[in-house]
Amino acid sequence: MTTVELQKRSEKSQNLRVIQVDETWFYVESDEQKICYKVCYAAEDQYSCTCGDFARGIKNDQNFKCKHVLAVMSCVPNGDQEKAQFLERRKPKLDERFITTIENKDFVLYAGLLDLAHQKGILKIDVDPIQLPSADNDHMAICKAHVISKSGEVFSDVGDATPQNCHPRVAKHLLRMASTRAIARALRSMTNVGMTALEEIGDFGDIIDVKQEDRSTRKVAQAAPKKIARAKETKSIPDKQDNPDKKQEPVAQTSQETPPQTQAAARIDGNGNGRGKSKQETVPKISSAQANAIANLSRRRGISVEELEKMSVDAYGVKVEHLSQKDASGLIRTLQQSS
User: Fold this and answer.
1) In angstroms, rounded to a whole number, what is the distance separating the alpha carbons of residues 276 and 285?
2) Claim: this prediction has a pTM higher than 0.70
């Protein structure tokens, strides 16, 4: 190699970026800064480079040094090389936004399982309907899902759906519900999530400890208000002491007498039966467990407090804190099925 070539090679090496990995290994960027060449430099007579120029030159000259080796030799004494930064590989993790807690039990949402599966590398999902719902099988739909990862692993599971284990709003879509449950179970196997998916639950009553109302209470709550019969007009009573033979004229109702409507109302509110007790039993109010479930579901679905109160007033005529246990269960089911 001529002196001119050595000089040009040395000038080019001055502008190359050198990144040090450890004491002997370096990475040197190319002139175009598109790739890096790995250089091993232990001593002045112990070096190597992965570039093609070094592979060709070292065959003819045992002391050949490419521009990448020269760049390392010029940087090490002066401390001009940069230290390599090793980035930690991002580990797949289930987002806490897709976890909901009901009655101190954690449940994962279908969207969270799908998100975690994509982080781990999912290739495709196949679903095979095993049984279509019909009258002969009590309208039970069964599907089998196959989740295939990019590494070739296959995870399979089944899901079923019937009018009895689904919310009434999705009872007409049993096949789709069975497919969703099957996929959720297969995704749980792939992502190693032990929590039950919220979509697998047929009724919140299975997980929420709600006190059952007495039959009499349910009848009172469900029965339509009875019509109040009009009170009959007061008939005159003959005054036997004054004149038994004389016909008594009908006595007109005065303003001092209690109107029939007021008397009927008094019987209802407990002031007209003489004992001061109400004949209608009190409907159980919303429990703390139901209130927590409603708060958790609305937060997970991005429903504000104002929107939640409006939903309660529109559906049941009262705010959430004044709901009965029965109406609270209905609101929970509504939030469960909301997208």
Assistant:
1) 23
2) no
